[in-house]
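Hi R.,

Here's the chain you asked about this morning:
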Amino acid sequence: MDLTITDDMERRGAAARRFAEDHLNTGLAARDRRGTLDAAEWRTLWGAAAEYGLLRLGLDTAHGGDGTDLMTATHVVHEVGRGCRDTGMLLALNATLWTVLRPLVEFGTEAQQARYLPRLLSGEWIGADAVTELASGSDAMALQTEAVRDGDGYVLNGQKAFIGMAPCCDLALVFARTNPAVGAWGVSAFLVETSLPGVTRGPEVEKLGLRTIPTGFLSFTDVRLPASAPLGPEGAGASIFARSSEWERQMVFAGHVGAMKRQLEACVAFSQQRSVFGRPIAGHQSVSNRLADMRVRYETCHLMQRRAAWQMQTGTGDAAAAAITKLHISEALLASSLDAVRTMGGQGFLWEAEAARDLRDAVGGVLYGGTSDIQRNIIAQFLPGWAAKN
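And the predicted structure, written out as tokens:
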């Protein structure tokens, strides 16, 4: 397993970090405080990210990607996380890459790819992954949204909740029941253009953290879908969701690991400048030990993230590996974010302080993509086979 960061990766990562610092932090404090969508502002930021090529990372050139391998793509996203102080934007970019674009590349027809990929990759259109419902939550495939055959197409009815990008998306990957009698194996995936009659948005939700990613509900009332709308065959929704979850859980936190390094760098600098009892707080053992813990968390998460990218690149990962990656990094991110606030004290506790914003954002990491409890359940399911093999 070669986890080396090459000179080319370093070069590309440094350029991406500078781009993020210069273009993705504009108006961040105001956007975080507002917590709701400003469509024009979001489109401008999204367009800049797309123009730079952040939505093409890790996708092959035949589908409009930049042709980078996943190890390189992961390092670039890591460095974007160091430069971009907007964790909501990081989540939006990564969610689009791994839960919208990747399923379209892996499961879409040539016609679907030709229609949607150029618009999504250019930033002209914004995509959303619409799985969650109020009544299902962690039991993701226990859906009420239903798509009923009608002639060559379908009629879609239902509601999706807490969907990132819902207030501004042009295309939604919607999971719905097509054969309720067979449970999860009767779930199908559909590419739904939100301009269709019967698609409505709202309400937009205001969150504790990740306030800069527009989030809300999508409702479908007698939405007529063409025969070309299904992604993959009918009944393949559970398989597509499982595959998408592996991508999400192993890859979506790459930028957050970069953010952990940014946190640590800021805390080290602060602890050397801030003095109490006649010396910098870095000289007090309780503070230095806390910083050491942050360093250990970052290093282990960075290695784990690169291993995850290698596993996805070589096809050697599985659901347990994805769950382990997601669980460890999300919990470590939350712990280090709390340590950053403790280190900066009152200055870190102010609402608009970067440390406070990072902490609020980190809480979401133990929830989205499957809660920490769900990840532990998945890991436990694989333990007998893992123990027998090892």
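Residues 128-234 form a domain with the Butyryl-CoA Dehydrogenase, subunit A; domain 2 fold (CATH 2.40.110.10).

Let me know if you need anything else.
M.
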